[in-house]
Automatic annotation (TrEMBL), chain A:
<dbReference type="Pfam" id="PF00528">
    <property type="entry name" value="BPD_transp_1"/>
</dbReference>
<feature type="domain" description="ABC transmembrane type-1">
    <location>
        <begin position="16"/>
        <end position="204"/>
    </location>
</feature>
<dbReference type="GO" id="GO:0022857">
    <property type="term" value="F:transmembrane transporter activity"/>
</dbReference>
<dbReference type="GO" id="GO:0043190">
    <property type="term" value="C:ATP-binding cassette (ABC) transporter complex"/>
</dbReference>
<keyword id="KW-0813">Transport</keyword>
<dbReference type="InterPro" id="IPR035906">
    <property type="entry name" value="MetI-like_sf"/>
</dbReference>
<dbReference type="GO" id="GO:0006865">
    <property type="term" value="P:amino acid transport"/>
</dbReference>
<feature type="transmembrane region" description="Helical">
    <location>
        <begin position="183"/>
        <end position="204"/>
    </location>
</feature>
<keyword id="KW-0812">Transmembrane</keyword>
From TrEMBL, chain B:
<dbReference type="InterPro" id="IPR010065">
    <property type="entry name" value="AA_ABC_transptr_permease_3TM"/>
</dbReference>
<feature type="domain" description="ABC transmembrane type-1">
    <location>
        <begin position="21"/>
        <end position="210"/>
    </location>
</feature>
<dbReference type="Pfam" id="PF00528">
    <property type="entry name" value="BPD_transp_1"/>
</dbReference>
<feature type="transmembrane region" description="Helical">
    <location>
        <begin position="20"/>
        <end position="45"/>
    </location>
</feature>
<feature type="transmembrane region" description="Helical">
    <location>
        <begin position="90"/>
        <end position="113"/>
    </location>
</feature>
<dbReference type="InterPro" id="IPR043429">
    <property type="entry name" value="ArtM/GltK/GlnP/TcyL/YhdX-like"/>
</dbReference>
<dbReference type="GO" id="GO:0006865">
    <property type="term" value="P:amino acid transport"/>
</dbReference>
<dbReference type="InterPro" id="IPR035906">
    <property type="entry name" value="MetI-like_sf"/>
</dbReference>
<keyword id="KW-0813">Transport</keyword>
Length: 212, 218
């Protein structure tokens, strides 16, 4: 395994960079989209709730790889050419946003309804109360699950390997087939994934305990 | 456009695609059974805190949980031949899924046991049962009921994750759809629609079941 790092260190680090880049972009956008749909689901409007429900259920119940392949295969055919990295990141964002929407919604629900009532009776509109009173409190509960979602994102970003996204998994696979030392190459890839995911998992477990 | 759909959904193609769904379900069910058994054993070892062993099991579980499933698939299918073992595709997929899911289920089992009121164990011990008898007859049966919704949710992920085994050429639904639209690019949209609907129906039905079980318990 050591000589894999020695020979292919640059390639692996480049892959790790792509993996992190894709995960971070997907985290930011899925947080925005997920929060948007969580707010729709909690809104008093029936149609908005229906739209949010459909969005969340669709993206939660279709495999990530199918969503990613859709953007890699179908979109270039009819709309615009996308490379593997972009298709993979879009797929990852949409898939994760459905899970984040559920997390944020649970966070909103865990805030005492008295907070909303108090804000409303002090003259704030529904959206003002949501924005300045409820959401900031909800996000405190949401941080540990979001950290776990980021770990899932890093792991799930390995689907980029299917669409030529040049991520860590893709590079590892290329190294495995060119060096023929599959076990050593995959072990090196595994170590790099663990360096990212393990510390976050442990830190989130610690945060969860402290919040509880 | 409509003609493409009619041609794409020919009886032969549909039979081929549903055969893929069969393999998806076969691999998922075999893996969930295997990983429930292994996960239960590992979860109990984690819970009872046997010196060194529990910590070691905990570390292994954490390592597996923090790796991508695709990497585990590669380890089994492309890595093992490096050590002189060459598994077939379906057993390789089941083995990789079982290893990954066992780690997930071990955590579900452990938190299920921890969710049982400690008074149950104390009561059983006070009535003269040994630690293992109390665990086996009093605590575990109650814990299993508590973990069922989480296990069903985990099974949904498992069904979705079998699509990753296309990469080792497991002939499941996604793989077969690619074979079909590989023959004719007009079939791409009909095929994506078909597999998206099939996955959705299976997973959504399971998620309704999980929610129902959760409500009944609360």
């Amino acid at each position: 395994m050591i000589h894999i790092f020695a020979h292919y260190g640059g390639t692996l680090l480049y892959g790790l960079g792509q993996t992190l880049l894709c995960s971070l972009i997907a985290l930011v956008f899925s947080l925005i989209i997920g929060t948007f749909f969580a707010l729709l689901e909690e809104s008093p409007n029936k149609v908005a709730r229906g739209v949010a429900r459909v969005y969340i259920e669709v993206f939660r119940n279709i495999p990530l790889l199918v969503i990613t392949m859709f953007f890699y295969v179908v979109i270039p055919l009819y709309v615009i050419k996308v490379n593997g990295f972009t298709a993979g990141t879009i797929g990852l964002t949409l898939y994760t946003s459905a899970f984040i929407a559920e997390t944020v919604r649970a966070g909103i629900q865990s805030v005492d309804p008295g907070q909303m009532e108090g804000a409303r009776s002090n003259g704030l509109t529904y959206w003002q109360s949501m924005r300045y009173i409820v959401l900031p409190q909800a996000f405190r509960y949401v941080i540990p699950p979001l950290g776990n979602q980021f770990v899932n994102l890093v792991k799930n970003s390995s689907t980029l390997a299917f669409v030529g996204g040049f991520d860590l998994m893709y590079q590892g696979n290329a190294i495995a087939s060119s060096s023929l030392e599959t076990m050593a190459a995959y072990s090196a890839v595994g170590v790099l994934y663990l360096i990212i995911t393990m510390p976050i998992s442990y830190y989130m477990r610690y945060l969860e305990k402290r919040l509880a | 456009m409509l003609n493409n759909f009619i041609a794409a959904y020919s009886p032969d193609n549909l039979r081929y695609l549903f055969g893929g769904l069969g393999i998806t379900i076969l691999v998922s069910v075999a893996s969930i059974i295997g990983s429930f058994i292994i996960g239960a054993i590992l979860g109990v070892i984690r819970y009872v805190k046997i010196k060194y062993l529990s910590a070691l099991v905990g570390l292994v579980i954490d390592i597996i949980r923090n790796l991508p499933l695709i990497l585990i698939l590669f380890f089994i299918y492309f890595g093992l031949p490096n050590l002189g073992v060459k598994p077939e595709v379906i057993p390789a997929a089941i083995l990789a899924m079982t290893i990954f899911e066992s780690a997930m289920l071990a955590e579900i089992v452990r938190s299920g046991i921890q969710a049982v009121d400690p008074g149950q164990m104390e009561g059983a011990r006070a009535n003269g049962l040994t630690y293992w008898q109390a665990l086996r007859y009093i605590v575990l049966p109650q814990a299993i009921v508590k973990m069922i919704p989480a296990i069903v949710s985990q099974f949904i992920s498992l069904v979705k994750d079998t699509s990753l085994a296309t990469i080792i050429l497991l002939p499941e639904m996604l793989y077969r759809s690619q074979i079909i639209y590989g023959q004719n690019t007009n079939y791409i949209i009909p095929m994506f629609l078909a597999i998206a609907v099939l996955y959705f129906v299976v997973c959504y039905a399971l998620s309704v079941l999980a929610r129902y079980l959760e409500k009944r318990q609360a």
